[in-house]
Specification:
Number of helices of chain C: 14
Shape of chain A: globular
Structural class of chain A: alpha/beta
Number of domains of chain A: 1
Radius of gyration of chain A: 16 Å
Largest sheet of chain A: 5 strands, parallel
Strand order of the largest sheet of chain C: 1-2-3
Number of strands of chain C: 10
CATH architecture of chain C: Orthogonal Bundle
CATH superfamily of chain C: Cytochrome-c3 Hydrogenase, chain B
Order of helices and strands of chain C: EEEHHHHHEEHHHHHHEEEHHEEH
Distance between the termini of chain A: 8 Å
Largest sheet of chain C: 3 strands, antiparallel
Distance between the termini of chain C: 33 Å
Number of helices of chain A: 5
CATH class of chain A: Alpha Beta
Number of domains of chain C: 1
Order of helices and strands of chain A: HEHEEHEHEH
Shape of chain C: globular
Chains: A alpha/beta, B alpha/beta, C alpha+beta
Helix content of chain C: 40-55%
Helix content of chain A: 25-40%
Strand content of chain C: 5-15%
CATH topology of chain A: Rossmann fold
CATH architecture of chain A: 3-Layer(aba) Sandwich
Strand order of the largest sheet of chain A: 2-1-3-4-5
CATH topology of chain C: Cytochrome-c3 Hydrogenase, chain B
Structural class of chain C: alpha+beta
Oligomer: heterotrimer
Bound molecules: iron/sulfur cluster
Chain lengths: 177, 168, 395
């Protein structure tokens, strides 16, 4: 991001970044029209029984501080722009975990008129966690899979690019540190 | 507390001057058919007598049907149900408005909490509620096209919306 | 929105529409004059999925699963309202044991929902220790539900005409143990809520709603009962097995946030008591009755008491395999209206607690833009910032 350094240094910096990210990923959670089932399970992962914080995962309120977007729900038309906006606000590199069957394909809401049928229609998703809702263990496993992939440097392939529509009114400002 | 029967009878008495018709579909329910002009006075009578509280406003689409034999074809209508509850008793005020003239008076001056229900009615069925305090969108997406009312029977959802298309 | 219309020192503070913790994202706009909120409006629809329309293209049985997924927190009660309506239309009644099992699930769900709320509301007030404790204890209920149904959130216990799972004596014993533990904890929480000074400072006299207001605004459930508006569908129009195993209505006089905490905790204790009574007198019968696949034409209204208040279903059948119209009126919808009114006159710092106080299926926030009237330099605030602002304010 902006910083010009020589190649070997860049590699070292990248290593450090990956190390930091893998050891303490910050996540933001967004409900794009889900039934809350998945959301309460995500919240449950924070509480003493599951306690994801011991893996260094921290749920964060602001997209600007987040590495991972944990998203639930079939993406309602009204929430779609919000979802894009949040994604846009996250600094690179960013990862998306889709939680719950309805975030994968629309699930039980398939065919309803006000949804987009799945987060992967809108954003590139790195990890899918199926289940309606998945157990907290499942969600933690999803995060662990992502971290494993990052550690080994195998970042899941990006299959789509996201354009933020201009009418979202997002000010076109460069994200800088 | 007075019995279910007494509560329902009291409502029947209250609404007698306005009703076209009464019906008792279930032991705890009283359906009252009203003409549109009588909606406000009927609601007022209920409110003044402190009869229960307004539980919900339901819209039901009654599309035009071919009509039974010998009868003329019906015109498409929206039926609006105002359900009042008191204990186990439910009184439903039923008003029908035709598609061509889907206008109802707002009951918000009498019952302020009706506003959410009325806004829903406007969005989902395209019934114009005259005098409701706020007419901005409540439920549908901002990108939803004007004049498409999803709960009318004539609206058939496309099998699948593309994420890229606006509003579908 | 309309900030041009307001005077020099007024700001509009939009909150919404999404929050890391919760559900139903709603978008609020508060007009503030200095520190005091002078107006509020709401925009819903971020989770509008089109379920009522979707219901028209699904068969009765498929709809059962759809209805359950209207809300992940009160899923059983949605399904119960739906099946009861359908059973009424079909002219059948679920066997006594099935009805008792429905009540068991409903009350366990109420316990889990109220404990969840207790934690979240405490969290909004900056009392994270209570949040963690109550969620830890909530896991006990989740275990019970998992033992009964195999799933933690959507139990799918209902069938049209009965229930899917039996509750064996063995399970009852386990649940009894869990309930004993929970009861002890609840006594402790009640003590905290009533005696902790900071907590009282944040809740007493905040967001007070009188009985008249509650009635006029159409408040339902614990929010209404905390304002002494004694109304509970379980008592007034018993369904499932509530005639055989009645519950006592819990009401409070004060109508403030504190009363809403107390009412919910006491209600949870009442649920525990009624569960014990059911276990002691579990009726014997089969679990399902036969129901025809086509439901006779007709209309019915089915009301139940969800953890958040009265849930209203209007179901209309045209005599086919699919319903003609299903209307769902959730309790949160009624309570939204109260927030808009209650907010006025309070400090901005109290908003998170007032919002949480009605236990909305709410989710607010993330980004909250503070717009100054003259200079359009939007300052970004997150919900967390607002929360911290509230916490700091009361420090
Ligand atoms: S996957 Fe199931 S539990 Fe999760 S949000 Fe969707 S409907 Fe609810």
């Amino acid at each position: 991001m902006g910083l010009e350094v020589s190649k070997p240094w860049q590699q070292v910096l990248d290593k450090i970044r990956t190390w930091a990210r893998v050891n303490s990923p910050w996540a933001i959670h967004f409900n794009s029209g889900s039934c809350n089932g998945c959301d309460i399970e995500i919240l449950a992962t924070l509480t003493p029984r599951y306690d994801v914080e011991r893996f260094g995962i921290k749920l964060q309120g602001s997209p600007r501080h987040a590495d991972v977007l944990i998203c639930t729900g079939p993406v309602s038309l009204q929430a779609k722009d919000r979802l894009l906006r949040i994604y846009w606000q996250m600094p690179e590199p960013k990862f998306v975990i889709a939680v719950g069957s309805c975030g994968l394909s629309g699930g039980v809401f398939h065919g309803c008129y006000n949804i987009v049928h799945g987060i992967d229609e809108v954003l590139p998703v790195d990890v899918f966690v199926p289940g309606c809702p998945p157990r907290p263990e499942g969600i933690i496993y999803g995060v662990a899979v992502l971290l494993e992939a990052l550690k080994s440097g195998k970042r899941p392939e990006r299959t789509m690019t996201v354009e933020v529509p201009a009418e979202l009114g997002v000010p076109k400002v460069e994200v800088s540190q | 507390m007075s019995s279910l029967e007494e509560i329902l009878t009291s409502a029947e008495k209250l609404l007698h001057p306005y009703a076209l018709n009464f019906n008792r579909p279930e032991a705890n329910r009283l359906d009252v058919y009203l003409a549109r002009e009588n909606l406000l006075p009927a609601v007022k009578a209920m409110v003044d007598a402190r009869w229960g509280y307004l539980s919900t406003i339901t819209g039901v689409d009654r599309p035009a049907s071919a009509g039974e034999e010998g009868q003329p074809a019906e015109q498409g209508e929206i039926e609006v149900l105002y359900s009042f509850c008191a204990g186990a008793a439910i009184v439903t005020l039923r008003v029908r408005v035709p598609y061509t003239d889907a206008v109802l008076p707002s009951i918000c001056p009498l019952i302020p909490s009706a506003t959410l229900g009325e806004r829903e009615l406007m969005e989902m069925f395209g019934v114009k509620v005259e005098g409701t305090p706020d007419t901005s969108r409540l439920i549908l997406a901002d990108s939803w096209p004007e004049g498409v009312y999803p709960l009318r029977k004539s609206f058939v959802p496309a099998a699948r919306f593309s994420g890229k298309a606006e509003g579908g | 929105m309309t900030f041009e219309q307001h005077g020099e020192n007024r700001f509009i503070v939009p909150i919404g529409p999404q929050h890391p913790a919760l559900k139903e994202p709603g978008h609020f706009e508060f007009v503030v004059d200095g520190e005091i909120v002078t107006g509020a409006s709401v925009r819903l629809g971020y989770v509008h999925r089109g379920i009522e329309k979707g219901a028209e293209d699904r068969t009765w049985t498929q709809n059962l699963y759809l209805m359950e997924r209207i809300c992940g927190i009160c899923s059983h009660i949605h399904a119960t309202a739906f099946v009861q309506g359908v059973e009424k239309l079909a002219g059948v009644e679920a066997p006594p044991r099935a009805r008792a099992i429905r009540e068991i699930f409903a009350e366990l769900e109420r316990i889990h929902s109220h404990m969840l709320w207790l934690g979240v509301a405490a969290h909004e007030g900056g009392f994270d220790a209570l949040f963690m404790y109550s969620w830890r204890d909530r896991e006990v209920v989740m275990d019970m539900l998992e033992m009964l149904s195999g799933n933690r959130v959507h139990y799918s216990a209902n069938l049209i005409g009965g229930v899917k799972y039996d509750v064996t004596p063995d399970m009852m014993d386990k649940i009894r143990d869990g309930l004993n533990y929970l009861e002890e904890r609840l006594v402790h929480y009640l003590d905290v809520v009533n005696n902790d000074e900071t907590f009282i400072g944040r809740t007493r006299g905040i967001g007070t709603m009188t009985r008249e207001q509650a009635q006029l605004l159409g408040a339902v459930g614990p929010t209404a009962r905390a304002s002494n508006f004694a109304y509970d569908v379980r008592v007034d129009a018993p369904y499932a097995a509530y005639t055989e195993f009645p519950v006592e209505m819990v009401v409070a006089e004060e109508g403030d946030l504190h009363a809403r905490f107390v009412v919910r905790i006491l209600e949870t204790m009442e649920s525990i008591r009624v569960l014990r009574r059911i276990f002691d007198n579990m009726p014997e019968s089969e679990l399902v009755t036969r129901v025809p696949r086509r439901i006779p034409a007709g209309e019915t209204i089915s009301r139940v008491e969800a953890p958040r208040g009265e849930l209203f279903y209007f179901i209309s059948s045209g005599g086919g395999e699919k319903p003609e119209r299903v209307k769902v009126r959730t309790p949160s919808l009624c309570n939204w209206g109260t927030v808009i009114t209650l907010a006025v006159g309070h400090k901005l710092a109290d908003m998170p607690m007032i919002l949480a106080g009605i236990d909305p299926c709410f989710s607010c926030n993330d980004r909250l833009v503070m717009v100054k009237r003259n200079h359009h330099d939007p300052q970004l605030w997150t919900w967390a910032d607002l929360r911290n602002y509230g916490i700091e304010y009361y420090r």
